Structures are given as structure tokens and as C-alpha cells.
Amino acid sequence: MTDAPRGRSAQYTVLTTGYTLSTGPGVAATVSYVTDGDRHVVIDPGMVAGRDRILGPLAGLGLGPEDITDVVLSHHHPDNIMNVGLFGRARVHDHKAIYQDDRWTDRDAEGHELTPSLRLIRTPGHSAEDITLLAGTAEGVVAFVGDLWWRPNGPVEDPVAPDLDQHRRSRLRVLAAADVLVPGHGAPFAADGDAPL
Questions:
Q1: Spatial CB neighbours of 156, under 8 Å, sequence gap ≥ 6
Q2: 151-190 as b/e, with b when 16 or more CB fall inside 10 Å?
Q3: Which of 62, 83, 98, 115 could covalently link to 45 via disulfide, CB atoms 3.0 to 4.6 Å apart?
Q4: CA–CA separation, 64 and 58 (whole Å)
Q5: InterPro entries, from UniProt (predicted)?
Q6: Residue at 26 is within a domain
Q7: Exposed, middle or buried by CB within 10 Å (0-12, 13-18, 19+), for 19?
């Protein structure tokens, strides 16, 4: 498990569980919060039915938007980034850089550590720019995978993936490092033999 974070001190909460509706236009992102040391991280603050679906659970943790130090964007599709502006003080991480205020700092996401328990890896599949945040917790490694998996039941073959072979390789890489998967539009599920490949 060389991709797994070195530390195991992170804690996470799913702020809102996303969905995709097969019979209509509704879509919402799964938005998560991770903390480790002095880092307060929101992952994929995308489309939700109302901003209170993100800010309300954060307030329940005793946090406001100004307390968030970092935002991780798994990829740049609007349904996963729509509410990034709620966190104006945060460093924003994507596949190629860190953005804050008027500063743009180039860096490859591959292997970048926010802390010893929080590591980014490149996982192209749903898009060429996909990244995954691996969080080392006391219970195991939690992978925030964006739309590498949309939800616990797949889809097995992503209909928008530009390269299905690469998509599968990225899924296998994550499964080798993680115990739990947090998908882009559904509830967390085990990173085991039942995970769609």
C-alpha cells in the first residue's frame, strides 16, 4: 500500500450525501469534511439543493466557512465545484496547482501531502484531471474519489470516461490503498470485492 498516507490521525464527516436521478435532471455532489491537525478540508463543494446542505453540517461541527483552510477539487465538472466560492480564505487544490487569493502555485497533485495523513494522488478516469484524496484515519484509509465512482453501485462503465482502461486502472490503484470509498454522488462504501469495477 505505497499510496496510503503515512499518518492515521485524520477524521472525516460526510456533510451531505449526493445523488443522481435517473428519471430527471436532479444531481447533487457528496460533500465531505476532513480534519487533521490544524487543517480543515472540504472536498468537492459542488451542486446541492441549497448551500445550507454544506454550511449547516459544518456549523454543527462548530465551523464556519472562514475556518476551512483547504478545499480539494477531485475534478473540474460544475456539479463537483459549484460552491467552492463559499470558502474564500481556503487554499484550493486540484490536479496541477494550489490557488489562494491572487496566488497560483504550480505543483503536481501526485503524492502531494497536505499533512502526513492527507495525500493526493492522480486517478484519471472520469476525466483526465481526476485526483483522489487519501485520508489516513484510526479506522483505515478513506478515499475521496470524486466521480471515479459516482455511487456505491457504479456505474461499472462510466459513460463519460474518455478512456475506460485508464478508468479501471485508477479504480484498482485506489482499491489497493483504501478501506472506504466516498464517491461523488452517493454514500461511502467499502473498498472491497463488491466495489464496481
A1: 196, 197
A2: beeeeeebeebeeeeebbebbebbbebbbbbbbbbbebbe
A3: 83
A4: 6
A5: MBLAC1 (IPR039344), Metallo-B-lactamas (IPR001279), RibonucZ/Hydroxyglut_hydro (IPR036866)
A6: yes
A7: middle
Burial of 115 (0-12, 13-18, 19+ CB in 10 A): buried
Q: For the segment 114-152, what is each residue's pLDDT rounded down to a tens digit?
A: 999 999 999 999 999 999 999 999 999 999 999 999 999
Residue 104 CB neighbour total at 10 angstroms: 11
Q: Does residue 96 lie within any of the structural domains?
A: yes
Which residues of the chain, if any, have pLDDT below 70?
1, 22-24
- Domain interval for residue 141: 11-190
Find the CATH number of the domain harbouring 176.
3.60.15.10
Is it true that the peptide bond before 124 is cis, omega within 30 degrees of 0? no
Dist CA 48 CA 94 (whole Å): 20
